[in-house]
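User: quick one, fold this
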Amino acid sequence: QVHVVQSGGGLVQAGASLRLSCVASGRPFSDLTMGWFRQAPGKEREFVAAVGRSGVNTSYADSAKDRFTIFRDNTKNMVFLQMNSLKPEDTAVYYCAASTVVGGKNYFARALAYAYWGQGTQVTVSP
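Assistant:
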């Protein structure tokens, strides 16, 4: 069993930056692929970014490229999502997720790849 706990988020103005943090426990952290997803009101949960076990391989949704950065610190069992140049359309509940399976980038862009999820954190970007 993997326990995932998130922190960060809040209310910011457009153009601001936020960093979300997530800590996972219960399995060696370097065994986990980590991802971030988000869900806006009335919309389906969507992929934001993922990072492979070593931290070298990353993937992003088109909406996150060039503005968001996912990175991890395997010594602290943590993964981060640095969000810059935030836009009102980034407003959503953000979820951190962990996966123990092996797969490719396309697989980890899907929510079903992840068995373990954080509690969600609200990010609100005002115009």
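User: anything notable?
Assistant: The mean pLDDT is 96.
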